[in-house]
Specification:
heterodimer, A: 159 residues, alpha+beta, Ubiquitin-like (UB roll), DNA polymerase, domain 1, 2 domains, 5-stranded mixed β-sheet, globular, B: 263 residues, Uridine Diphospho-n-acetylenolpyruvylglucosamine Reductase, domain 2, Enolase-like, domain 1, 4-stranded antiparallel β-sheet, 14 strands
């Protein structure tokens, strides 16, 4: 059996015919070939699969594609400007060396953008709490925390 | 994940009509989807409640806060009304899982699942909240039956939960650093004439601690509970903590909850 899921991904309307049990991350990676969204743990712990759904960071490996029916999804591919200029949060990750291998980075950036909308000038403690659902096995988080603070302030300044 | 038939009803009535046999209701899916991926659950049908917008929302009249079953944890945590009327409830919702999980997970889903280490059961039992379904109203003593077990019938759907506002309250949990579930969590609520103490994570299902309630009703202060020794009989013992350790934590968390409620 198949179902049709209709949603917007990075501003484009998408209709995919999928099996009922298909996860949102599978639609994103395998049907739309947007492979910037990663599957790390596949058990909702690592946050590498984080995408924005209707403006909120969610774990796309932890939901059925049908749960995104009618929603607007943004993946890491939709974060930068059309001309390739980095989003302030991406620029901050680059500036502060907030990544090493880069596997966790798409989820980190998507979650950080959602967090920064509500915390224009976050404390280190607030940032660390906001990262509970994102694991990084390279950096020790220190530069990620610095990057998110700088990114949040840059986002607030560019408003 | 095993295959299933997917339904997206547009009313509670239609959802209830589909809910029979091996069908499962899907709220936020933050437990159910992972459980299905691990093949620990293999429902024949999934009834997605995601289209039932009427089930999401928060109402408050200053004395009671009523939260729709499909309200996400993040919305409870950030609600100005909840923060004002029952700040401990907003704080509890903000401690569930991580922020991505809180953006999807719902109060109705959490209660229907009744995980022994979940946070919301402590608030519901700790404040004597009413669980409202499509069929009836249930007190927490009627609702919580045992580990992952509730009084809900197969075709019964939680529509809302109504919390009476206590004079003061607090929830403190000792969390598992990986899952962020409660190893032990204690909700303390002072209603003036009575005090309720609900414990999650420690036993197979959320429970009240009568001895602490009595002591706190006499005097609402941390020292009232500090020397109460909780028996380890019947408490959970697993790779995270022994029953003895959990029993000890109940007293420590209760003391901290009273301290927090007094702040």
């Amino acid at each position: 059996m198949a179902v049709k899921v209709s949603l917007k991904v990075n501003g484009k309307s998408v209709v995919a015919e999928v099996e009922e049990r298909t996860l949102l991350v599978t639609v994103i990676r395998e049907h739309l070939r947007l492979t910037g969204t990663h599957v790390g743990c596949d058990t909702a712990q690592c946050g590498a699969c984080t995408v924005s759904m209707n403006g909120r960071a969610v774990k796309s490996c932890s939901m059925l594609a049908m749960q995104a029916e009618g929603t607007e999804v943004m993946t890491i591919e939709g974060v930068a400007h059309a001309d390739g200029t980095l989003h302030p949060m991406q620029a901050a990750f680059k500036e502060h060396h907030g990544l090493q291998c880069g596997f966790c980075t798409p989820g980190m950036v998507i979650n950080a953008i959602d967090f920064a909308k509500h915390h224009p000038d976050p404390s280190e403690q607030e940032i660390r709490e906001a990262l509970e659902g994102n694991l990084c096995r390279c950096t020790g988080y220190h530069n990620i925390v610095k990057a998110i603070g700088a990114g949040a302030r840059a986002m607030a300044a560019s408003k | 994940m095993h295959a299933f038939k997917y339904h997206r009803p547009s009313s509670v009535k239609a959802a209830a009509a589909l809910a029979k046999g091996e069908a499962k209701l899907l709220a936020g899916g933050q437990t159910l989807v992972q459980t299905m991926k691990l093949r620990l659950a293999s429902p024949s049908d999934i009834i997605d409640l995601g289209a039932l917008q009427d089930l999401a929302g928060i109402q408050s009249d200053g004395k009671t806060v009523t939260i729709g079953a499909m309200t996400r944890h993040a919305d409870v945590a950030h609600s100005a009304e909840v923060k004002k009327t029952i700040p401990a409830l907003a704080a509890l919702a903000g401690m569930i899982g991580d922020r991505q999980v809180r953006a999807m997970g719902t109060i109705g889903g959490s209660l229907a699942n009744n995980d022994p280490a979940a946070d919301y059961p402590a608030a519901v039992l700790g404040m004597g909240a009413t669980v409202i379904t499509n069929k009836r109203k249930l007190s927490p003593d009627e609702f919580f039956k045992g580990m992952f077990t509730t009084a809900l019938a197969a075709d019964e759907i939680i529509t809302a939960v109504s919390f009476p506002a206590p004079k003061r309250a607090a929830y403190i949990k000792f969390k598992n650093p990986a899952s962020r579930f409660a190893i032990v969590g204690v909700f303390v609520a002072d209603f003036g004439s009575s005090v309720r103490v609900a414990v999650t994570g420690a036993g197979p299902v959320v429970f009240r601690q009568a001895e602490m309630e009595k002591a706190l009703a006499a005097k609402f202060a941390p020292e009232s509970v500090a020397n109460i020794k909780v028996k380890q009989d019947g408490l959970n013992s697993d790779l995270h903590a022994s029953a003895e350790y959990r029993a000890h934590l109940v007293t420590v968390m209760a003391k901290r909850a009273v301290e927090a409620a007094l702040k």
